[in-house]
TrEMBL record:
The gene is ppx. Residues 20-303 form the Ppx/GppA phosphatase N-terminal domain. This is Exopolyphosphatase. InterPro entries: ATPase_NBD, GppA/Ppx_hydrolase, Ppx_GppA_C, Ppx_GppA_N. Residues 316-469 form the Ppx/GppA phosphatase C-terminal domain. Belongs to the GppA/Ppx family. Coiled coil: none annotated.
Length: 508
């Protein structure tokens, strides 16, 4: 499939961005260029909501700089979307006219409903969440939505954003009474929407302020994993960041690790929005989505062009994308999955390993990706496999689940497993660690049954005896390489099931 490039320009109240995407082999979108400009268009709105000429000139100059980047790409389509600062301007028609005359670009001014909808659309196309509330804090507005069974149920746009809320503070580090007053205002605003109250679901945060909040927290915690998408925080974590920032002197605020310089003066009011909304919802946790408005617009646009579903199985598609990216052998994967299912069912039915449907799901995912690090180097394949899976964003998986997948798919032996899990040991109970070790052992064994990727094994049968398990492997051709590898690696399975394993290879 020929790769196609799409561009989107996002004209926000605080920042403007140009993002260019390419289609992948899996027909998904991958970001390949991201250019940001701090425009602060909101600050150019006069008291009568006219965007003054200085603001229009800054907007046009920024668009022209973006066009120089666009000229280096062959693009299937370019979308230019504007949000609150332009939407709220009374001279929006004049703004559009000047943009067309001086850049040739046609802008689409999003309604409040559209802005909220695209945030929701981005979330359900990049996570596996079935229910939740999204919040996207812009410079001049804040959008919230509620979805259930992945369907949008409610949405609203509040006429305040990080830039407008910062006017509540005289200085970048607010006084205690200023924060108290802001919190009261936010609680009153959120109380106007009954559907926000006490939902007890996850709160999904979108946008630059949310990213900065997560980045600061990761740095404070010396977080061992790369990536922000689906990073999870709790109320104590939000307060930890808030207390840290408000304790600083103004000169040090802009130098905080993880905080963009252009957000230093608006991050504290933005965090208050997250905190107050978290309390209103009684959220289970706050989850960061790196996908937002721009992605939502393109998901809709791309879906119309390709006639694909707007609501795919996000995780399955992400796994397929990895299979494509690393040119993994699909016949080999399918065969290993079949063998793994057989061993899994035998172990479960006979109580050799305590297994459930979540274990089956994890093992199936890992069987798609087992040993993918061989793509880089066969000798150190487990190390590459673990690093790639643990540190690559996989849409549909929260961070803890991503580490579990990486541990099973990279399994070599107990020693290497313990090395890999060490930075994340506190994330898992002892029983969880044991289960992951067992699943890795099981997958390593079945992988060896197709060591030459010829699919020579027709079926396997099991005979459970008091101290041993006899595994009869029926093959359609000579299977000496498979026999050698499974004999060599069966010790891991033996430790997992607590019994010796005898192998008998039978050529049909």
């Amino acid at each position: 499939m020929k790769k196609l490039n799409y561009a989107i320009i996002d004209i926000g109240s605080n920042t403007m961005r140009l993002v260019i995407y390419e289609t992948t082999k899996s027909n998904r979108l991958r970001e390949i260029e991201n250019v940001k400009a701090s425009s602060r268009l909101r600050t150019f709105l006069e008291e009568d909501n006219t965007l003054n000429q200085a603001g229009i000139d800054r907007l046009i100059d920024t668009l022209k700089s973006f066009q120089e980047v666009l000229a280096t790409y062959t693009l299937q389509d370019t979308i230019c979307a504007a949000t609150a600062a332009i939407r709220q301007a009374v001279n929006k028609k004049e703004i559009e006219t000047q943009i067309v005359q001086k850049t040739g670009l046609n802008i689409r001014i999003l309604t409040e409903e559209e802005e909220a909808y695209y945030g929701y659309l981005a979330v359900i196309n990049s996570t596996s969440l079935q229910e939740g509330i999204t919040v996207d804090i812009g410079g001049g507005s804040t959008e919230v939505t509620y979805f259930e069974n992945r369907e949008l149920k409610e949405s609203h746009s509040f006429p305040f954003g990080a830039l407008t809320l910062k006017d509540c503070f005289k200085k970048s580090i607010p006084a205690t009474e200023e924060i108290t007053k802001l919190r009261q205002y936010l609680r009153e605003q959120f109380a106007t929407l009954p559907w926000l109250q006490n939902r007890e679901v996850k709160l999904i945060a979108i946008g630059g302020s949310a990213r900065n909040l997560a980045q600061i927290h990761q740095n404070l915690e010396s977080y061992p994993l790369a990536g922000l998408h689906e990073y999870q925080m709790f109320q104590k974590d939000i307060m930890e960041v808030s207390n840290y920032l408000t304790s600083l002197k103004p000169a040090k605020l802009a130098k905080v690790e993880g905080l963009s310089k252009d957000r230093a003066d608006i991050i504290i009011p933005a965090i208050e929005v997250f905190h107050c909304l978290y309390q209103t919802v009684r959220a289970e946790s706050l989850v960061l989505s790196r996908k937002g408005l721009r992605d939502g617009i393109l998901y809709e646009h791309f879906a119309k062009e390709s006639d694909s579903s707007l609501f795919p199985n996000v995780l399955e598609e992400s796994i397929q994308e990895l299979v494509n990216d690393f040119d993994l052998n699909r016949k080999h994967i399918k065969h290993v999955q079949s063998l793994t299912e057989q061993v899994f069912d035998f172990c479960k039915e006979n109580g050799l390993i305590q297994l459930d449907k979540q274990d089956r799901r994890l093992l199936k995912m890992a069987s798609f990706l087992f040993n993918l690090g061989e793509y880089i180097d066969s000798e150190s394949s487990p190390q590459h496999t673990f690093y790639l899976l643990a540190n690559r964003t996989i849409d549909g998986l929260e961070h803890r689940e991503r580490v579990k997948l990486a541990l099973v798919a990279s399994f070599k032996n107990k020693t290497v497993f313990n090395q890999f899990i060490q930075p994340y040991k506190s994330w898992f109970l002892k029983d969880d660690r044991t289960k992951l070790l067992e699943l890795g052992s099981l997958l390593k064994f079945t992988y060896c049954l197709d060591a030459t990727r010829r699919q020579v094994v027709e079926r396997i049968e099991f005979k459970l005896k008091k101290k041993i398990v006899l595994i009869q492997v029926y093959t359609k051709a000579n299977a000496l390489p498979e026999e050698y590898q499974t004999e060599k690696q069966k010790k891991h399975l033996e430790k997992a099931i607590g019994k010796d394993v005898e192998l008998e290879f039978i050529t049909l």
